[in-house]
Amino acid sequence: MAITPVKDMVMAAKAAITSLSTEQAAAEVAAGRAVFVDIRDVRELERDGRLPGAIHAPRGMLEFWVDPASPYHKEALATDKRLVLVCAGAWRSALATKTLQDMGMDNVAEMEGGFSAWKAEGRPVD
């Protein structure tokens, strides 16, 4: 049985979502129009650091945390601001952004290059 390669899934997701450059994402957050949502695993946060002020919503819980009907709902994610999803390299964030769009959210985007690009550009890390 053949499966769809994850790279193909990521490329399809990226064709259907909004991707912001690190500069665009930082500007939206600084202007108060967006919040960063870091979907990396807690071990990645501990090892590599995190974006200052980012909400941590692990990828495995994201859909449950954004759904107001879920017993796991997190109020921090119930906002009119744009949620800018961030992972290590913008693959998980692309798939997660597409999933949230499929759930009916229109205030969601991903950050191109992910945390790796952010850090490589010398941007602040906690």
TrEMBL record:
SMART domains: RHOD. This is Rhodanese-like domain-containing protein. SUPFAM superfamilies: Rhodanese/Cell cycle control phosphatase. PANTHER family: THIOSULFATE SULFURTRANSFERASE PSPE (PTHR44086:SF13), THIOSULFATE SULFURTRANSFERASE RDL2, MITOCHONDRIAL-RELATED (PTHR44086). CDD domains: Polysulfide_ST (cd01447). Gene3D superfamilies: Rhodanese-like domain. One of its GO terms (molecular function) is thiosulfate-cyanide sulfurtransferase activity. It holds the Pfam family Rhodanese. InterPro entries: Rhodanese-like_dom, Rhodanese-like_dom_sf. It comes from Roseicyclus persicicus. Residues 30-126 form the Rhodanese domain.
